[in-house]
Amino acid sequence: MISSNDFRTGTTIELDGQVWRVVEFLHVKPGKGSAFVRTKLKAVQSGSVVEKTFRAGETLAQAQLEKSTLQHTYMEAEEYVFMDMASYEETRLTAKQIGDGRKYLKEGMEVNVVSWNGSPLEVELPNSVVLEVTQTDPGVKGDTATGGTKPAIVETGAQVMVPLFITIGEKIKIDTRNDTYLGRES
Question: How confident is the model at residue 1 (pLDDT cuts 50, 70, 90)?
């Protein structure tokens, strides 16, 4: 159980048979009446967002999530297959369960799979990944690091804005949280 006074961004609670993640919260103490907590909650399974108000000190069930590190081994039809490298058990997830992160998912990559009551909810990618540029406009002599940017497509098919001096075949580091170029990798 968790008190509404202990809400923080990222806290997960069980409400109406679903898992909800606190996106925003605000403790309000009006001049008249009792205090309350105004929250914005996001459903982990569906992604829908609702605003909900709780009394200060109200207790709710905290969602018991389990994280396991799995390796993406291959794709079969429309399913992504992950393997637990300790027990060699396979877990199959759909593109919807993985979400937007699948554009950076590469075979052999280790990810955290978050489960609730034995069923996988979401996949947490590493904060940054190193991928090879497969398509971009050619770099021109004189392009500088502080100049503009151009689109580049990496080996997984994702498109990222990169500096003008990046060429095809280079490995670059990408922030998976906001789709930004972080630098070259050797």
Answer: confident
Beta strands in 29-156 (DSSP E): 36-43, 49-55, 59-62, 65-76, 79-83, 90-94, 110-116, 119-124, 128-136, 149-154
Whole-angstrom distance, CA of residue 22 vs CA of residue 144: 42
pTM (predicted TM-score): 0.66
Asked whether the beta carbons of 139 and 149 are under 8 A apart, the reply is: no
- Give the pair of three-digit tokens for residue 100: 């937007």
Phi, psi of 97 (to 5 degrees): -70, -30
Instruction: Note whether 79 and 72 are within 8 A (CB).
Output: no
Q: Is 94:78 a contact under the CB 8 Å cutoff?
A: yes
